[in-house]
Amino acid sequence: MQTPFSLRIFVADGDPDGLRIVDKSNWIGKALVLPRALLPQVKARPELAQTGVYLLLGPRPDGEGDMLYVGEGDPIRPRLESHYAQKDFWTRAIGFTTTTAGQLNKAHVQFLESRLIALAKAAKRLPLDNANQPAEPSLSEADRADMEVFLGHMLGMLPVLGVHAFERAPSYAAAALATSGAAAANASGVLYCKGKDVVASGYESTQGFVVKSGSFAVVEVVPSMRENWPARITQRRDLLEAGVLVPDGTALRFTQDYVFTSPSLAAVMILGRHTNGRTKWKDAQGRTLKEIQEAEAGQ
């Protein structure tokens, strides 16, 4: 069961889109969230003079979705200044450090960087701009335990800050508990999407719509999708390149549970054509997701 927590967001310059300092209850760390354009004005902040780990996020070169870079700095400021001059893609940065200087050292942030990159690669939610997987540094047992706790706090905060790159798909039981209460976890709420010679199964979660591992998708997309929905072609290519989808006989197979932002996007990836996921996903009794939601809403 998840533990409730609170965040305090301080808008440092009064602009909601400007620099934000984010503190989490019962944690020694803090986050700085800033747009790229603001770095020259805020680089003198004392937090950026500390050792820390940071994320850079921004649109991919083809403009279809975001990409991610994970880095560490001792201190953070010169690394961000270097990326400001040399990396074009990023539009915002999130840096993590501590409320009191000196609580993180170089080995600590190298460990955090390595773990974050490994988690992003496993989740396969965003393409990484990092060329390599850095090795974890040698830490004492106590330091490693402390950094795992620090990492856990970061991962809890990031979805609230709009970053889902490190999240694996929740299990069906966890999703049912989060969305519908304990009773639903024992009910059959799995939905099915069927197309020509393919069947996929999935369920709704707080993260989005999860397509289950072992589901199948068509190999070929319809011509109109290539002409009118190039972004969907790019997303499908990304799933293939990341190994989320692999060829299996005459179809493509999902190798892991994977979260899509909506049931419609999940159905489009499976069927290779534009479709309404709320009417395409059905339960074992043949009720559409739309009908199920309307019944739950009392309509």
Structure overview:
The chain is 33% helix and 23% strand. It is of the alpha+beta class and 299 residues long. The protein has two domains: 7-157, no CATH class; 172-296, no CATH class. The strands form three sheets. Strands 1-2-3-6-4-5 form a six-stranded antiparallel sheet, with helices on both faces. The chain has a four-stranded antiparallel sheet with strand order 7-8-9-13, sandwiched between helices. Strands 10-12-11 form a three-stranded antiparallel sheet. Helix 3 (106-123) crosses helix 4. The two termini are 31 Å apart.
Total DSSP E strands: 13
Contiguous low-pLDDT stretches (5 residues minimum) are 181-187
Report the sheet with the most strands, covering strand number, pairing sense and barrel closure: 6 strands, antiparallel
Distance between the termini: 31 Å
Short characterization:
With 299 residues, this protein is α+β, with helices and mostly antiparallel strands.
What's the arrangement of secondary structure elements?
Blueprint: E1 7-11, E2 20-24, E3 29-35, H1 39-42, E4 52-59, E5 66-73, H2 77-86, E6 92-98, H3 106-123, H4 141-157, H5 172-180, E7 191-195, E8 198-204, E9 209-211, E10 216-217, H6 223-228, H7 230-242, E11 245-248, E12 251-254, E13 258-260, H8 263-271, H9 277-280, H10 289-296
